[in-house]
Amino acid sequence: MAKIPTYFKDFLKDIRLTKNQISDLIKGHKTLCDRLNADEDLSDQIVSIFLQGSYRRATAVRPKDGKRSDVDVVVVTNLDKEQVTPKEAHDLFEPFLEKHYKGKYRVQGRSIGIELSYVDLDLVVTSAPSEIQKEMLQNNGVITNYNLEDLDNWIYKSEQFDSDSKPESLVYFEKFVQASWKTEPLFIANREANKWDPTNPLEQIQWTWDKNKSCNSHYVNVVKALKWWRRVSDLGGNYPKSYPLEHLIGVCCPDGIDSIASGVTETLETIVTDHPTKPVLPDHGVPEHDVFERLTEEEYETFYEKVKEAANLAREALDADSVNESATKWRELFGNKFPEPPKPAKTESSSFTERVNKTHIGGNRFA
């Protein structure tokens, strides 16, 4: 098999967030956090502020066409969801936003978007958690700026590092986490639907960490690679969206993979064989929520056809007879961010036999 790890290393270097983008992201989050905690009207209402989303899970890819990086900031409040409506919760933040981000924010259905010159922030307001959850949500293991690739290990509760200094080593106590620090859903203010929606970002972070560990640290890179593939392929739209796609990849990526190339190939093939029709995908920590709920059958059908094509191409790349052939196939799949192989010298010693019989993956969708 042609796993060409150095090619994938260079590819990932070109599609992941740059150091400057990460610095801007953290700067935007920290400035927002400091301002919220210093605000006379809001500080008493705030329990915790922490990062969520693809940056925190280490599955983010570089924005396209010069767009800004974006980050989701969860603001956990002590607001009683039985007494306060989602609109009232968002309205509490309006004086603060007018003071610090006038002309730069917009109220959305489930969040408040803040557009800065260097980063986009999504401020997500949640209602009051239980007393047990409050303690966990205020822990440094939750409010740290570091993502999963920055940490050797991560747990909800860790007294071994502070939020601004990188830990050298953390001990992962799986049984302790499961027994003592089981998370509960938080409830997001959804003013569009006039209800509080359950979500569990900490469980999504923990699940991603566990999956990455079981995949020999290749999982988050498989996600980044396939997110990039979705971007460069003609899917006729942006569906499935970033997190639903990531969730499907997590369900289909086999444990124990030994390379990114194998992980990408086997994940695509598993989608083809196991999900010829739109699946129901229970969210981590909120099983009653189907992350594919908003995806239509037609959108999934379009996506599925593209996955079949990609699975065939990935298998050809993985099973190629030479590095040159393999890299050429991967470049066809991922676009020009994947390194171009050197042209082989025109000598007899550099020639190779081209494969005649090629592997094709097909689902039973139209059988």
Summary, kept brief:
This protein has 367 residues and is of the alpha+beta class. Helix content is 42%, strand content 13%. The chain has a domain at 202-367: Poly(a)-polymerase, middle domain (Orthogonal Bundle), CATH 1.10.1410.
Describe the structure.
With 367 residues, this protein is of the alpha+beta class. 42% of the residues lie in helices and 13% in strands. The chain has a domain at 202-367: Poly(a)-polymerase, middle domain. The protein has helices spanning 5-15, 19-38, 53-56, 86-91, 94-100, 131-137, 140-143, 174-180, 201-214, 219-232, 242-252, 260-274, 297-318, 323-334; strands at residues 46-52, 69-77, 105-107, 112-115, 119-126, 186-190, 195-199, 282-283, 286-290. The chain has a 5-stranded mixed sheet with strand order 1-2-5-4-3. Helix 10 crosses helix 12, helix 12 (260-274) packs across helix 13 and helix 13 runs antiparallel to helix 14.
Strand content: 5-15%
Give the terminus-to-terminus CA distance: 30 Å
Helix content: 40-55%
Fold-level CATH name of the domain at 202-367 = Poly(a)-polymerase, middle domain
Mean pLDDT: 85
Contiguous runs where pLDDT drops below 50 for at least 5 residues:
153-180, 348-367
Spatial strand arrangement across the major sheet: 1-2-5-4-3
Elements, N to C (H/E): HHEHEHHEEEHHHEEHHHHEEHH
SSE inventory with pairings:
Layout: H1 5-15, H2 19-38, E1 46-52, H3 53-56, E2 69-77, H4 86-91, H5 94-100, E3 105-107, E4 112-115, E5 119-126, H6 131-137, H7 140-143, H8 174-180, E6 186-190, E7 195-199, H9 201-214, H10 219-232, H11 242-252, H12 260-274, E8 282-283, E9 286-290, H13 297-318, H14 323-334
Parallel strand pairs: 2-5
Antiparallel strand pairs: 1-2, 3-4, 4-5, 6-7, 8-9
Helix pairs in contact: 10-11, 10-12, 12-13, 13-14
